Amino acid sequence: MALRQALRATPRVLREQPILFVPMAIFGALQTPQLFTETLDPMLSVVASLVGTVVFAFVTPIFYGGAIGMANDAATDVRTSMSRFWRHAKECYVSLLFAYLFLIGISLVFGFLIVITAIVGFIVGFGAGPPGAILAGAVVIGLIILFFIVMVALGFYGHAIVIEGLGAVDGLSRSVQIVRQNLVPMVGYVIVAVALGGLSGGVFAATITTILPPAPAPGEPAPMPDPEAILLISGVSIVWTVLFMTVFVVFSVLFYRELIGADGEGGADLNGSDPDTTETTEPASRESTSADDGFIYSS
What does the DSSP assignment read for 15-50? Predict the structure, then answer.
């Protein structure tokens, strides 16, 4: 039911409030310089990638929180705007940043474990034969599956923080709670998310690979894309980010609201009132104190 309702409502929400596409258009434009790091000298490419990763670790929560807030506005029939985007982003930034950095840490730990296990498995397999290699391979696959499960369980942290006004720790635990209590709908949600991401990501990767010049060999000068290719690659990247990310954020917000019963009796609007006209009508639940960051978030 929740999945079907979210899928049906997503096109309508996007059609009624096309401004929802704007934040991801800006986010996509900011990401385009990273597409060309592979055309640089190998050392410069590594440095540029690391710098870009660090910068976007602090920038991404702004767009994630603002986009979720705008989608939640639209879900409650509030006329959203970029001013409301900025409002949502500012209110929830600290909690979103802490939670996002926590997820990055988990990803790094799992990545390290998977790489080390694969290396050990290769060495053991080379010396002990197929049984050792099979065992190591099974461990690697198990770690990958466990990592995927953890990411799915924590995937609604942003929705809990923005929509329900929770802090970082409470938002992460709330996400786990919601997923655990709705395992059957989550299966459908994951299938839709993977299918949508896989299809759009495959088209995007194939297009970029076709247009982007190959990375230079060691000692050779870096090839520079011609101006037409640069514009085309940038355009493809922005369009992909706008379409996929906006659709997915709106769909996930609608799905989350269905799971928590936000659109049912007595709980329709957790964070959807218009501050320009009804500032005093926001529900008290939007104000909460988070022990993990010490801030009070109040609309």
Answer: HH-GGGGHHHHHHHHHHGGGGGGGGS-HHHHHHHHH
